[in-house]
Amino acid sequence: MLYWKKLSQKEKQERIQKALEENVNFTHDTSLGYPASKLDGKVFNSEASFLKDAPILQTYVANPNHIGCHTFGTSEKAFKGTQEIEREVLNVLAVDIFKAEPNSFDGYIAPGGTEANIQAIWMYRNYFMYELNAKPTEIAIIASEDTHYSIPKAANLLMLDWLKIPVETYTRVIDVFALETIIIKAKAQGKKYFIVVSNMGTTMFGAVDNPDDYIQMLEKYKLTYKLHIDGAYGGFVYPFSNKNCDINFENPKISSITIDAHKMLQAPYGTGVFICRKGLIENVLTKEAEYVEGMDLTLCGSRSGSNAIAVWMILFTYGPFGWCEKIRVLQMRTEWLCEQLDALGVKYFREPFMNIVTIQAQYITKELEEKYDLVPQKHGKGNLWYKIVIMDHVEIDHLSTFITDLKATVHAKKGITSEILDIT
């Protein structure tokens, strides 16, 4: 690890205090040009005594604006202290976790994985148009049917076709025969450039796509593509649970990655991460943002610097070994649940290195769904699955109670079936 280590509470407080001192201080500094200020003092008391021991809340009240991208060109100097904290976070994520070379990437803390995914597709669309003179009608998105809804949202916003690739019902593996058929048809219809979204942990199943399925098929037909990894859910799990994980920047075919810090990392909601290789993000430079130093390369524009501080605090509280230990605990709980389901003969899907267990709907009653807040694959008719996500608050005691209730349900159904057989 080049950048990631565990820090004491004192070290973290001192580092963030130093960063805040390097930012503009709207209470004491004469700052006339920014349409910004600290949070309203009549509502948020910046003199509260507890703030001195709460660096994230100090940052929240100070209200730094991290508009722009701080790995590319210049940025607003008024917030340079906390911008440096954001760069430290990106170094940990890009280099230490996803194996990029130092200074070989751009990125930013986005307001969630949805924006980060749209940012990637926007960037690649523009890359194909600006660098390769592609027409929008010649560009298509390829992603599986299990892909997050941010992908069809991006297709709608950017007016691109989404080629939805089927997956096998019970393994959630990409249907490579259907993939080939769809690519052949798209090529015949004039599609020449492809934006590929490969999942590292789908929202419903935690399934992990094999990027090589896409790579091999597109290269077989000599098609131009860019490959984005949607690790919004799995990015803080899969690289730690699977020692052989090779879905990272060591693979030269992978150009960008999305991660969500507000899921497994338990950062405040509205905290995603976008990382891409150098030489790409300038395709979404908004030159019209001339009043912003460095202009803007992000979809959202203004964004809270306190989100970056929250991610930094979490990463440097755990350190790499502490985080690995946390993920191992969640994996053990997940494995315990799977063992109990196996003993009951209940059918489910689980990606071996993920902490999501998705149970076939035939085993789940309405009472179980409501009592345990189980999430269906689709609300309404036609639902086939319910998922359980083993988050930090989900302990064995909770799972044991669920298994007890599920066992009663399974036995009751077996009893009904036996009665029907006896009658017939």
Please give a structural write-up:
- It is a single chain.
- With 424 residues, this protein is of the alpha/beta class.
- The chain contains 11 helices and 11 strands.
- The strands form 2 sheets. Strands 1-7-6-5-4-2-3 form a 7-stranded mixed sheet, with helices on both faces. The protein has a 4-stranded antiparallel sheet with strand order 8-9-11-10, covered by helices on one side.
- The radius of gyration is 24 Å and the shape is globular.
- Mean pLDDT is 94; it is low at 417-424.
Topology:
Layout: H1 9-22, H2 55-62, H3 80-97, E1 105-110, H4 113-132, E2 139-144, H5 150-158, E3 161-165, H6 176-188, E4 193-199, H7 211-220, E5 224-231, H8 238-241, E6 254-260, E7 272-277, H9 305-344, E8 348-349, E9 356-360, H10 366-371, E10 375-376, E11 385-389, H11 396-423
Parallel strand pairs: 2-3, 2-4, 4-5, 5-6
Antiparallel strand pairs: 1-7, 6-7, 8-9, 9-11, 10-11
Helix pairs in contact: 1-2, 1-3, 2-9, 3-9, 4-5, 6-7, 9-11
